[in-house]
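job 3f2a | input accepted
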Amino acid sequence: TALQEVLTQDVNDHKGWQAATKQVVDLQGQWKAVGFAGKEHNEVLWGQFREAADVFFERKQVFYDRVKASSKVAKEKKVKLIEEAEALQSSTDWKATSDAMVRLQQAWKAAGPCAPGDEHKLWKRFRTAQDVFFKAKKAQFADRNKEEKANLALKQALLEKIEAFTLSDNRNADLETLKAFSTEWREIGFIPRKSLDSIMERFRTAMDKHYDALSAARSERSVQTYSKRIEKLASGDSRDLRREQSILRDKIGRLQQRITSTEENMERFTGKGAESIREQAQKTIRGYQREIDEIKAKLKLLREAAASDKG
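job 3f2a | predicted structure (311 res):
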């Protein structure tokens, strides 16, 4: 019957129970409107109706008792989440706190609903704490963006100075100037992330060019100075020249081994910071190669001296 269908239907939410309750109340009204069916039949039918209705309302009470209990648990959870959010709202650890606030939002959703009256009040407190933090973060990064743009302009100006710099005959003074460039570069501070790679590459290229030029000049002077040693060796036993050549070849061999070892280690560099480590390794390799080139130039002078000695 319609009554049985209403009283036994599966209801799992507040809206459903409201609709079902209205149907039961309407049926009760219809029952009364129909009138008596005779005393004997009336009492039996009414008893059946009341029994079914009582079961319905008992089920309804069980549902709302469960809702009340779960709402209480949800309220307790959400109060704790609010307290955590309020404790974090003034934090300036932007990354860690942003992550924490997002986790609190997820926990809020998972906590389930409270009673309607509590839900609105609690959500307002929770949302306020979140807004305090994220508005402060937004303002901070707006200021930071301005600062980073200003820093970018400073670094671009410094780059022009570095690129225009020319070496003098005073190696120590040139080294001090290059060190000063590096110090000034570090002190300027952060720049926009999107410009970082191109600016850093330009800086490294300019600085490497100057340092390479200094190394080349140093090597050239070293070779020139070495000529005096060759003259001394040539004036003595001819075996001294051969011994010197052997020593220099051994040095080249050791340097080549270092290059090979460094290249092999470079392949192992992975993860965060690997690119920076590889760049440093490349600089080390270039340094070894410059030493090898310098030694080869000295070997050439030795061979020429040995040939002259034979002549």
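job 3f2a | The mean pLDDT is 81.
job 3f2a | closed
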